[in-house]
Amino acid sequence: MTGNISNINNDSELIRQFKNGDVKGYNEIVRKYQQQVYWVIRKMVQDHDEADDITQEVFIKVYAALKDFREESNLFTWLYRIATNYAINHIKKVKVRSTISVELVAEPIESKDKKADELIDEQNRRKILEQAIETLSAQQRTVFNMRYYDQLQYEEIADILGKSVGGIKANYFHAVKKIGEYVKERIEL
User: Among 4, 77, 82, 98, which is 20 to 30 Å from 145 by CA?
Assistant: First the structure.
């Protein structure tokens, strides 16, 4: 998440280039960050086409807002915040309980060493985990995703979401507790 100095300087130069009227700076920002922004959204919105559409909306917003970006945070933190907010708003707008696609972050379950029944059992566990994550509120799902899968620090999450560190820790704690309870009820230990 935290970039090196040359990356930050490069981003500052691209922003300056765009603010001076050269759209190439914006195009380079899109090229550089489009895939990362897509995956931030994709982990929250299970459908590829919806995630792709939201990614496009994010970069339309970025184009309109980049001229006012004051660089108080680094560029990717700002992009992450916009992407997360768009994904949360999308989830709320369509009132669909989206999931973080466990298949995107988990190791492939297909292995020649495993028996078919082990594969089915593992698939069932992943499905239960997916369902557990679906039960979380949009805010808890976002915090869980950022902390567990993206391995961001609480302070980074708080900065991105514009929330207090204590609130972020509480959201994560409650998300983990809900997931644990849900999974425990459905998987025989």
Answer: 4
